[in-house]
Amino acid sequence: MENISPERKKTTLTKKSLLFVLVLLAFVGVSTIATEWMIQQGTDNRIGIVDITGVIQSSQNIIKQIKSFRNDKHIRGIILRIDSPGGAVGPSQEIYDEVLKTRKSGKTIYASMGTLAASGGYYIASAADQIFANPGTLTGSIGVIMAFSNAQGLLEKIGLKPEIIKAGKYKDIGSPTRSMNQIEKSLLQDVVTDVHQQFIEAIANGRGMSIAEITKIADGRIFTGRQAYSLKLVDQLGGLQATIGQLTAKAGIIGAPNVIREKPNTGLLDWVLKTEISPSIVGYLPSPSLQYTWHLDSL
What distance in Å separates the CA atoms of residue 68 and residue 73, rounded to the nearest whole number? Predict the structure, then answer.
């Protein structure tokens, strides 16, 4: 039987210990890399959803969300979830511009229509890379409305006679205290016609269609999602989940995406009452302005 010297035993033990440490370090290194990869996969599978609901009267919060998602490298794509009859012209145009800017930046942005995405709601959607609608979604209403009330008869009955002091011949155009003359109506019609043309041009630009194609159907009529699809106003028929699925594939996300949605702000009154006031109610408070809006009571 061979006798092993203490020095040799010590050297063998040292080698084994060193080998064990190297194997352990290699295992830890591989585990760390795998963990980092898994974390990275978890943070890079995000899809941001921006909700556009009710009458559009302001653009600030929606633009803020779109911009935030666009600049977040972990957000692989954006979905606009639209349930709106439209609203004021200015805010609709501002949101449209932000959507178009996002599209041009290279980040994919889709529009998903819910129950209603008409007028200004469709205006915004037309800037997206793709538009999805349910077969029964109400959309279209490519038109402009500017409504005024004439209370002159009522005021006369109750004996109230307003006195108007103005500088500028047409400064009180559209006043509820008197009827408009034909020249004033013509002036306002020119304004509405110009804004309508802006609507047509925006859709043609966003959808890659000709002005003539859009003009044919830009008479204010509404369409179902299926009708809009046949007119090339919509790219695919499907709901929000279908939109998420398509965007997931487009963005190259593996597995189920992590859907990010901003929690809506709740005002002080809503907090006190423990409820939320419907934005559609707030949006329909009377105020004379140009509107990309479809009114249900106009039927």
Answer: 10
Which residues of the chain fall below pLDDT 50?
1, 30, 32-41, 271, 273-287, 298-299
Question: Which residues does the annotation mark as catalytic?
Answer: 119, 171
Q: Exposed (0-12), middle (13-18) or buried (19+): which is 72, by Cβ within 10 Å?
A: middle
Condensed to tens digits (0 to 9), the pLDDT of residues 185-221 reads 999 999 999 999 999 999 999 999 999 999 999 999 9
In sequence order, the 6+-apart residues with CB closer than 8 A to the CB of 147 are: 288, 291
How far is residue 145 from each of residues 120, 270, 284, 286, measured CA to CA in Å? Answer: 11, 31, 14, 14
Using N-to-C axis directions, what is the helix angle for 89-105 and 182-207, rounded to 10°? Answer: 20
Q: Please answer whether residues 107 and 117 qualify as being in contact, where contact means their C-beta atoms are separated by less than 8 angstroms.
A: no
The separation between CA 271 and the C-alpha centre of its own chain, rounded to angstroms, equals: 25
Share of the chain above pLDDT 90, in %: 63
Which pLDDT value is given to residue 11? 59
Q: Please, what sign has the CA dihedral across residues 242, 217, 85, 109?
A: positive
Q: What is the pLDDT of residue 14?
A: 60
Q: pLDDT value at position 39?
A: 41
The pLDDT value given to residue 162: 85
Rounded CA separation 227/225 (Å): 5
Q: How far apart are CA 83 and CA 91, in angstroms?
A: 16
How far apart, in whole angstroms, are the C-alpha atoms of residue 269 and residue 2? Answer: 92
DSSP states of 109-150 as a string? EEEEEEEEEETHHHHHHTTSSEEEE-TT-EEE----B-----
CATH, domain 46-298, list 3.90.226.10, 3.90.1200.10, 3.40.50.1970, 3.40.50.261: 3.90.226.10
Number of Cβ within 10 Å of residue 33's Cβ equals 10
